[in-house]
Automatic annotation (TrEMBL):
Segments of skewed composition (Low complexity): 12-23
Family annotation (PANTHER family): LD44762P
SMART domains: RAB, RAN, RAS, RHO
Keyword Nucleotide-binding assigned: yes
Organism: Macaca mulatta (Rhesus macaque)
Keyword Lipoprotein on entry: yes
Domain of life: Eukaryota
Region (Disordered): 1-52
Protein name per its UniProtKB record: small monomeric GTPase
UniProt cross-references to InterPro entries, sorted A to Z: P-loop_NTPase, Small_GTP-bd, Small_GTPase, Small_GTPase_Rab
Keyword terms, alphabetized: GTP-binding, Hydrolase, Lipoprotein, Nucleotide-binding, Prenylation
Pfam families recorded: Ras (PF00071)
Family: Belongs to the small GTPase superfamily. Rab family.
The protein's Enzyme Commission number: 3.6.5.2
Length: 253
């Protein structure tokens, strides 16, 4: 499945993470026909095994599908690129078209955990494409932008959508992004925490929690897991004021 992005604003020319569309190039997914590309494993339950299902040479013990969702512009793509490649896509905002995925293998206490991270388009017109992918996601990262009140207000609508299309036991995590733009901030951390506490959130599966947290594993679902992050450092995912790494970068690579 291709993802192409359309430029939304001007700025420094930053290389896009994906190929731009052309007449003969990859086309965006159409409603109801969205399927993973040849490198993508079929949808399904937790996938143990070696080697990689994707055939990309990755070796792993367990695999999970994670989807990033939230309004357009909240920073889903940037978060994913930062997590995968360690780079921050500053400048030009290029809106995702359709859906795309990237794989990453983490070492969690000696267990190789493969994450297939799906980056979805936040724009309303692509919603029907992304709906098809909710069903088999093990975890959802629901993002809002702390400098954009509407993106926070829309979290309820996203939750309704998740309730409708995702598995009832999907792990869910709320992330307030762009906390580095403190002067533009309009959504307080407390409001994010309040929303998180008002909702039953599943703890993201324990392996990832441990990897991001640099901590002991924790078992079972957790209530009120409200997280703030900014995509300039996924290691800050659990501490919005922690732009200094709390986790050795090597563990995320
Ligand atoms: N200051 C700041 N800007 C960010 C951060 N994350 C993303 N941005 C900027 O926000 C804009 C949108 O980022 P994207 O990652 O493309 O947003 P998206 O959620 O993928 O948007 P769609 O593809 O339309 O759904 C870009 O200009 C980024 O540079 C962040 O943590 N801090």
């Amino acid at each position: 499945m291709s993802r192409k992005k359309t430029s939304k604003s001007k700025g420094a020319s930053t290389p896009a993470a994906s190929t731009l569309p052309s007449a003969n190039g990859p086309r965006p997914a159409r409603s109801g026909t969205a399927r993973p590309g040849p490198d993508a494993p079929p949808n399904g339950p937790l996938q143990p095994g070696r080697p990689s299902l994707g055939g990309g040479g990755d070796f792993y013990d367990v695999a999970f599908k994670v989807m990033l969702v939230g309004d357009s512009g909240v920073g889903k793509t940037c978060l994913l690129v930062r997590f995968k490649d360690g780079a921050f896509l500053a400048g030009t905002f290029i809106s995702t078209v359709g859906i795309d995925f990237r794989n990453k293998v983490l070492d969690v206490d000696g267990v190789k955990v493969k994450l297939q991270m799906w980056d979805t388009a936040g724009q309303e017109r692509f919603r029907s494409v992304t709906h098809a992918y909710y069903r088999d996601a093990h975890a959802l990262l629901l993002l809002y932008d702390v400098t954009n009140k509407a993106s926070f207000d829309n979290i309820q609508a996203w939750l309704a959508e998740i309730h409708e299309y995702a598995q009832h036991d999907v792990a869910l995590m709320l992330l307030g992004n762009k906390v580095d733009s403190a002067h533009e901030r309009v959504v307080k951390r407390e409001d994010g925490e309040k929303l998180a506490k008002a909702t039953t959130w599943q703890q993201l599966f324990t392996g990832v929690w441990a990897a991001l947290h640099g901590n002991q594993r924790q078992d079972g679902p957790q209530r009120g897991l409200g997280l703030h992050s900014h995509s300039k450092g996924v290691e800050a995912a659990l501490h919005e004021d922690s732009q200094r790494a709390t986790l050795p970068a090597a563990r995320l690579r």
